[in-house]
User: What shape does this take?
Amino acid sequence: MTSAPQPAEAGGPMIAIEAVSKWYGEVRVLTGCTTAVARGEVVVVCGPSGSGKSTLLKCVNALEPFQEGQITVDGTRVRDRATNLPRLRARVGMVFQHFELFPHLSVIDNLTLAPRKVLGRSKAAARARGLDLLARVGLSAHAEKHPGQLSGGQQQRVAIARALAMDPVVMLFDEPTSALDPEMVGEVLDVMVELARDGMTMMVVTHEMGFARKVADRVVFMDRGEIVEDVAKDTFFDRPRSERAQQFLSKILAH
Assistant: This one.
């Protein structure tokens, strides 16, 4: 029997990551990672390439298995064998680097497929919700187009709307702007800023330090599979404690 997700206790973290370690074969890629994301909090995860940021994020909804530790999302233990992972993933919105839209479906059908199949919504209800979300991300005029007819920035905004169509309790973003041309980055970040202002709980892997300064409550800095710093954003940018974080910021903020 699978366990139904139980709401997180009031005041408790929406996401709790406790001593998580992961290996690919004999290669250790995460080492004792511990952090938490409170309800309504925006946490930016940053660090050099290959530091384990995306791997840790994908562990949150079990897209990547991990061998040690525990992750709890809104009261549900990710690594518990009794946990219904499809049900958990339905409540955790995920936005990927490369959009992952269905190319053969229209934009509106991309938004309505999962709510109809997974949540059991009627076609009319799913479509109404989808159109509302497209309006929210500024794409009402593109509902009947296919993804290939849209720019990269527009496709990523569709991907965000698709994730929101499942009414998630938390949103995970895995480098959502890294595959975009520079002029398209702003339109995606604007949508994410509005989500944060509306109180969405968000965990964001990104190199966009301007976004982190503007929106993040906390910054988690990773290097070589470890969480090196986990501090308020002002502390991270103004007074980074570790030499590795200081070096990272000196390079990334110099451009």
